[in-house]
Amino acid sequence: MTKTVIQAELPPELATRARSFVEDGWASDFNELLAEALRRFLESHSSQLTESFVINDLQWGLHGND
């Protein structure tokens, strides 16, 4: 699998908690933990995004915001 390298800034306490998860064996490394967290976030918010797009489309169709 091809991977993309990103750079992110995290609050120190969040980074510390994430590293503790890795040290406790919940993820093999920090990269795996962040990738899994991002995947879960995107999955859990996809329906909200879809709903938002549908609402915007309906409002445009009803009121024509051009």
Through-space gap between termini: 42 Å
Radius of gyration: 18 Å
The run of helices and strands is: HH
Strand content: under 5%
Poorly predicted runs are none
Mean pLDDT equals 88
Number of distinct beta strands: 0
Structure class: mainly alpha
Largest sheet: number of strands, sense, barrel closure: none
The gross shape turns out to be elongated
Number of domains: 1
Helicity range: 55-70%
Number of alpha- plus pi-helical segments = 2
Descriptive labels:
single chain, 66 residues, mainly alpha, 2 helices, 70% helix, elongated
What does this structure look like?
The chain is 70% helix and 0% strand. The protein has 66 residues and is an all-alpha fold. The protein has one domain. The radius of gyration is 18 Å and the shape is elongated.
Short description:
With 66 residues, the protein is mainly α.
Secondary structure: elements and pairs:
Elements: H1 12-23, H2 30-63
